Amino acid sequence: MKSRRPARSIVLVAIMLASLSGCGMFKRHSELECMERAMAFESNRSSRDGMVAVGSVVMNRVASGKYPRTVCGVVSQRNQFAPGVMTRKMDRRSAPMVREAAASVLRGERHPMIGNAQFFHAANYRAGYNNMHYVLTTGGNAFYERRRPELVTQPYPAPPIEGITPAGKIR
């Protein structure tokens, strides 16, 4: 009589893999979906400018050589973006707005005021570092470049600016 143990092991492994794939552990995201996730969870979806600025930071990181060379690589980096950015459920109501902005950034659009900024934080957060040169506040975030302290000319976030990107404010 043959043992059923190997068959049970195969079934258990199959069940485990199926359950893990359901939690996103094995799901492979497209570059568009990764950009959408960064925009959806990092900007408060209050303005197209805020989403395009977040996307511009992602693309600046991709181009920098200091971060992963893909959008998904940058967005899924540990402790760099909102917790659960790659696994949380996205709001379907804002999906069309987010998708348009993400696709536009992937086609080459950048926020015209973002420059080389690779960093941002919530606009109401105040950091005590002396190397943060702020370039833009929009969509609930303050965007900045890291510079040598003597080269910082804008050490505080400026008032928010909206309506700069072509589609302007999202309703």
UniProtKB/TrEMBL annotation:
<dbReference type="GO" id="GO:0016787">
    <property type="term" value="F:hydrolase activity"/>
</dbReference>
<protein>
    <submittedName>
        <fullName>Cell wall hydrolase</fullName>
    </submittedName>
</protein>
<dbReference type="InterPro" id="IPR042047">
    <property type="entry name" value="SleB_dom1"/>
</dbReference>
<feature type="domain" description="Cell wall hydrolase SleB">
    <location>
        <begin position="47"/>
        <end position="144"/>
    </location>
</feature>
<keyword id="KW-0378">Hydrolase</keyword>
<dbReference type="InterPro" id="IPR011105">
    <property type="entry name" value="Cell_wall_hydrolase_SleB"/>
</dbReference>
<dbReference type="Pfam" id="PF07486">
    <property type="entry name" value="Hydrolase_2"/>
</dbReference>
